[in-house]
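Long-time lurker, first post. I've been practising inverse folding by hand and with some scripts of my own, and I keep getting stuck on stretches where the structure tokens seem ambiguous. Below is the full token string for one chain I'm working on. Before anyone asks, I'm not after the true native sequence, just a reasonable design that respects the backbone. If someone could post their per-position residues I'd love to compare against what I wrote down in my notebook.
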């Protein structure tokens, strides 16, 4: 099951929008209440980094790595999202493309809802604004896209947004992350794998710390994180991240045994999308990251991915 985390707005905003029938009537439901200001006020225990001036210092002992030629290939599916919020300001988030099959190109992506809330019109709709999503392939090719629609976004008990890019990205250039067939706890359970492969979790994004993240200009990732439980929509992971990583993926690398696999390709080592970064709880430092688990919106995401 995919549990969600309502975290701090680890980043800046992004995206565009509009509701869409591709999610079988589920798109846009309760959008007004989900972005109600009273909710934001109620989240006093969640650090919100969006709009925070300056760049945070990198903590001593930070275990992240900077993406390079020897890094996991799936990191190519993580993009840097920059949106214009006014005539003089821009905000940055992270985003990842996701699919329900290794045979599909990528056009559906996941980010954090607070990365799109500045486009919210207050009537259940989003107005598309200027934004750009930049991906870098493993061959160092730059691919630029933008968000054309917000298919579903929620901030009540969670913080996620399912968005559609303005054009697909060929799987020959970038393989989308696979939507997880189970929740992260099950995938990390060695009883489910029973293959000799030890599953592990990773968080990635464009953290805008002064050191490793180079103020959000490079992608960083923290491997073999410990993912904890928590209240629905508010899961904690012991991974390092900073402002700018919001919307970045939480991924479990696993090899599912034949007894549990729904598809043949599940028995191979795969990288499963299980949630997205939101921020941090007040009182915690940047070594603890809250995330929204995709189990919270599985039914909606499954329908959207099936339609694309």
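-- Answer (accepted) --
I ran through it position by position. Result:
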């Amino acid at each position: 099951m995919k549990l969600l985390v309502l975290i701090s707005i680890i980043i800046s905003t992004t995206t565009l929008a509009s509701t869409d029938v591709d999610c079988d009537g589920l798109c846009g439901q309760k959008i007004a209440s989900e972005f109600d200001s009273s909710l934001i006020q109620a989240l006093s225990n969640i650090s919100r980094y969006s709009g925070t001036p300056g760049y945070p210092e990198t903590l001593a002992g930070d275990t992240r790595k900077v993406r390079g030629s020897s890094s996991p290939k799936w990191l190519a599916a993580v993009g840097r999202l920059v949106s214009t919020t006014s005539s003089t300001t821009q905000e940055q988030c992270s985003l990842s493309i996701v699919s329900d099959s290794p045979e599909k190109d990528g056009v559906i992506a996941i980010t954090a809802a607070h990365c799109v809330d500045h486009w919210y019109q207050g009537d259940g709709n989003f107005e598309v604004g200027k934004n750009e999503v930049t991906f870098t392939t493993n061959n160092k090719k730059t691919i630029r896209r933008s968000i054309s629609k917000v298919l579903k976004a929620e901030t009540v008990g969670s913080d996620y947004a399912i968005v559609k890019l303005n054009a697909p990205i060929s799987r020959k250039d970038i393989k989308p992350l696979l939507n997880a067939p189970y929740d992260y706890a099950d995938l990390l359970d060695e009883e489910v794998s029973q293959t000799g492969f030890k599953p592990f979790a990773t968080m990635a994004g464009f953290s805008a710390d002064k050191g490793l993240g180079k103020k959000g200009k490079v992608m960083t990732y923290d491997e073999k994180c410990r993912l904890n439980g928590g209240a629905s929509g508010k899961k904690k992971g012991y991974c390092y991240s900073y402002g700018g990583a919001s919307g970045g993926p939480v991924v479990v690398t696993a090899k599912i045994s034949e007894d549990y696999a729904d598809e043949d390709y599940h028995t191979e080592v795969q990288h499963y999308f299980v949630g997205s970064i939101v921020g941090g709880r007040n009182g915690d430092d940047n070594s603890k990251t809250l995330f929204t688990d995709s189990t919270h919106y599985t039914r909606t995401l499954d329908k959207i991915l099936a339609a694309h």
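A couple of notes from the structure itself: The helical segments are 31-34, 37-42, 184-187, 190-193, 298-306. The two ends are 23 Å apart (CA to CA). Happy to go over any region you disagree with.
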